[in-house]
Write a structure and sequence with these properties.
The structure holds two protein chains of two kinds. Chain A is an alpha/beta fold. Chain A has helices at 15-26, 42-45, 63-69, 127-130, 132-136, 146-160, 185-197, 240-250, 301-309, 401-409, 455-474, 539-558; strands spanning 4-5, 8-11, 31-34, 205-206, 254-257, 260-268, 273-281, 287-291, 294-297, 338-343, 350-353, 360-362, 379-386, 415-422, 431-439, 445-450, 478-484, 515-516, 519-524. In chain A, helix 1 links the parallel strand 2 (8-11) and strand 3. In chain A, helix 1 packs parallel to helix 12 (539-558). The longest helix of chain A is centred in the last third of the chain and has 20 residues, at 455-474. Chain B has eight helices and one strand, in the order ααααααααβ. Classes of the chains: A alpha/beta, B mainly alpha. The interface between A and B is large, with 70 and 73 residues. Strand 11 (350-353) of chain A pairs antiparallel with strand 1 of chain B, so a sheet runs across the interface.
Chain lengths: 562, 183
């Protein structure tokens, strides 16, 4: 097959690839998006309104099939009887890890990537986050600060459509918000109590969500069915399928090619530039090349780095972008599974109507104004107050007519849950490398992952339990249930790092505009680029970095500097 | 109990979804599917076990002015889960627990639970309800039976439509609507 030639190549069609496609096509570049997985037809594939009794196992999942084909993916809750099709077949997409260092790599290979199933929580960072590495001596300093990215956050937020409440908290700056859904009665009361009891330090605010409360950009406001991870036929939550890819298609300059597994980047040592990418057709397994002036890697953090590692040349024997020795290193996730739930004593005469997909957020309060003695950085809580209704039945004592009446006619008391999401430090010893003995279904060398949480994260997780319990006690909750689970990294599905940005080519893979130091017409703008991961959900930052990098690439192309 | 806890309780680390709501087309499709599922013969539970499971499920959620567990085919759902979903060890533990329930009935004067007088059935179930944390035996079987009965009942088409009156489309979220439990 003769090589295809475009102005730009985007590898991956997920949350950052969609943004690269939109920005590059809107700037006039003929762009091909290479997606490893299958196309998605929302009319067929979106299943948010399919009911439990339409599913063979009523939503409990096809357990035996999932255990056989998705032994890793099954660990995430969204890989259920409806949405397991949006997660990869682990047999076709293997990777390895040392027996004593498990890592759950949760992946989606289809047009739209994981933007179909993502959590939709979007929080800006602050300079508390951008300066943390430099202040504390971990990793490398970010080459940018809040003010470099703030206009790009605004830019993407306006397009995405985000609901949120302005709080004027310096650690999570406000953004461009639609009016949020209100807190429910129990959450509002809890907010009021905690604001008083913790002197304004611990704030229950509305989750900031990429879910529309107002019609926006041809997409309808959310109808509150509550099942975002299964798709959305009204396009009410942001995904690349719902939003950026249609915008790119509208320009007439987009070519979207599913079933295109990118093997490697092709490097020209004379020009010291990449000339294109080598691709394997997922169905025919035929290899072909695509050429372009600029390449954006948006295959997801570890996949983009895998492509670079598989792009070794005589000049870069350890992979394109490896001259610093940091390619593959400094892998991070967040840490979760620390928190508590409890039964609230108030608002029993109130209920909610409508199923919010996410509810509340408690922004980071550790190491903001005062230093915590046990750990660096911090965590936020996601959570909700809810009345469990019939779902409390299997745990509730009793049976018979009165038991049934209670489950059908009452909702049970409000239960509040606070679950922590904490920052993981960047450490060189957490890394991915090519496994010399393992290839995927297309013969491409697979990754071996070496990653563990450090004592800092473990201490932080312990504190999540303590502070969540404190808050529930302050609310007068009963039946408080602290929880802490020792899950491996990866399961938060916020994997970042492995091709970090930096100020110095000797210690980083990418520069301040996400260009590979070794091949400046290659941009990496997904999670791989992050020198640290803060504690906020990362996707909106990938979007902002991608839009910023695309704008810069366009400037360089106009100046003929690529 | 949280969905995750329910599933863990049932023996797997899969998370259950939120309950969706119906549309006309979906309801029609589901009704047909439900009918087909209902026609599936029991494949794991033998005749005696069917009788035991059906009796206990109906005592957990009895027919009143609304359908009971049997009417919405909870026993068939339990058999499906035991046959296609449950692991071999868990299935064996459950079936052993059913046998243990009959053993306890023997101590109360009948060879089988189903033959106990109504008051004795309630007495034994009350005991078993207090033993749901047991790791094996009758308490374990009762706990799983109760969890599956509640789940199978409330995820059935008739209950979602006619009792819970589930909705799928809302014109905005309301977080503080007055509520009084049904009298």
């Amino acid at each position: 097959m003769p090589p295809m030639t475009f102005d730009a190549i985007v590898v991956g069609s997920g949350i950052s690839g969609g943004w690269a496609a939109k920005e590059l096509t809107e700037k006039g570049l003929r762009t091909i998006v290479l997606e490893a997985g299958r196309p998605i037809d929302p009319a067929v594939d979106y299943v948010e309104h399919v009911l439990p009794w339409e599913k063979r196992y009523r939503g409990m999942g096809n357990r035996k099939q999932v255990e056989r084909y998705q032994p890793i993916q099954r660990h995430t809750g969204a890989c259920d009887e409806w949405s397991s099709k949006f997660f990869v077949n682990d047999l076709d997409n293997p990777y390895s890890f040392p027996e004593d260092k498990p890592f759950y790599w949760i992946r989606g290979r289809q047009v739209g990537g994981r933007s179909i199933m993502w959590g939709r929580c979007v929080y800006r960072w602050s300079d508390l986050d951008f300066t943390a590495n430099a202040r504390e001596g971990y990793g490398v300093d970010w080459p940018i600060r809040y003010n470099d990215l703030a206009p790009w956050w605004s830019y993407v937020e306006k397009f995405v459509g985000i609901q949120g409440r302005r709080e004027n908290l310096p650690q999570v700056p406000d953004g461009e918000f639609q009016t949020p859904w209100p807190l429910n009665a129990a959450e509002q009361k809890s907010r009021d109590i905690l604001l008083t009891k913790f002197g304004g330090e611990r704030v229950i605010t509305n989750a900031r969500l990429a879910v529309l409360t107002e019609d926006h950009g041809g997409r309808q406001k959310c109808h509150l069915c509550g099942h975002c991870a299964r798709g959305c036929i009204t396009l009410s939550y942001f995904s690349s399928i719902n939003s950026t890819l249609p915008a790119a298609r509208k320009t007439g300059r987009l070519t979207l090619r599913p079933f295109s597994v990118v093997h490697s980047v092709i490097y020209d040592p004379v020009k010291r530039r990449a000339t294109g990418v080598r691709v394997i057709d997922a169905n025919t397994k035929q290899m072909f090349d695509v050429n372009a002036k600029v390449i954006f890697l948006n295959a997801s953090a570890m996949e983009s780095t895998r492509i670079l590692l598989n792009s070794a040349t005589p000049e870069f024997p350890n992979g394109l972008g490896s001259s610093s020795g940091e390619l593959g290193h400094n892998l991070m996730d967040h840490i979760m599974d620390g928190g508590a739930s409890g039964t609230l004593p108030f608002a029993t005469d109130r209920r909610e109507v409508g199923n919010r997909p996410d509810a509340i957020y408690v922004p980071r309060f550790r190491n903001v104004k005062t230093k915590h003695p046990d750990f660096l950085r911090g965590y936020g809580f996601e959570g909700r107050a809810f009345r469990p209704g019939w779902e409390r039945g299997s745990e509730m004592p009793g049976f018979g007519a009165s038991f049934k009446k209670s489950l059908t006619g009452d909702l049970g008391p409000w239960v509040m849950d606070f679950g922590g999401f904490g920052e993981m430090l960047p450490r060189h010893e957490n890394y991915v490398a090519l496994d010399p003995h393992l290839v995927d279904a297309w013969g491409i060398p697979a990754l071996r992952v070496n990653c563990t949480y450090s004592e800092n994260e473990k201490k932080m997780q312990e504190d999540m339990v303590v502070s969540a319990t404190e808050m529930l006690e302050a609310l007068g909750a009963t039946d408080i249930r602290p929880y802490k689970e020792d899950n491996p990294p990866g399961l938060v599905i916020h994997e970042t790092g492995t091709a970090r940005m930096g100020r110095d080519p000797k210690t980083s893979v990418l520069n301040a505009h996400n260009q590979v130091w070794d091949a400046p017409n290659v941009f990496v703008t997904d999670g791989a680029c992050m020198p640290s991961t803060a504690n906020q959900n990362p996707s909106i930052t990938y979007m902002a970095l991608t839009a910023r990098a695309a704008d810069y690439a366009h400037q360089l192309l106009n100046r003929r500097e690529l | 109990m949280r969905r995750r806890e329910v599933v863990q309780f049932l023996g797997a680390a899969l998370a259950l979804p939120f309950i969706p709501r119906g549309t006309e087309a979906a309801i029609k499709f589901g009704a047909e599917l439900h009918l087909r599922l209902g026609d599936v013969p029991f494949r794991t539970l033998n005749r005696d076990q069917q009788a035991l499971v059906t009796t206990i499920a109906e005592l957990i959620i009895p027919e009143t002015d609304t359908p009971g567990a049997t009417s919405v085919k909870v026993p068939e759902f339990i058999d499906l889960i035991l046959t296609e979903w449950t692991g071999d060890d868990d299935r064996a533990a459950f079936l052993a627990g059913l046998r243990d329930i009959d053993v306890r009935a023997t101590a109360m004067g009948s060879n089988r639970f189903v033959d106990l007088p109504a008051a004795k059935k309630v007495e034994l179930m009350t005991t078993l309800d207090g033993a749901r944390a047991d790791k094996a035996g009758a308490g374990l079987a009762f706990a799983r039976l109760k969890a599956l009965t509640v789940y199978g009942y409330f995820t059935s088409q008739r209950v979602e439509q006619d009792i819970l009156k589930m909705q799928m489309f809302f014109n905005g979220y309301q977080g503080s609507v007055p509520f009084t439990p049904a009298a």
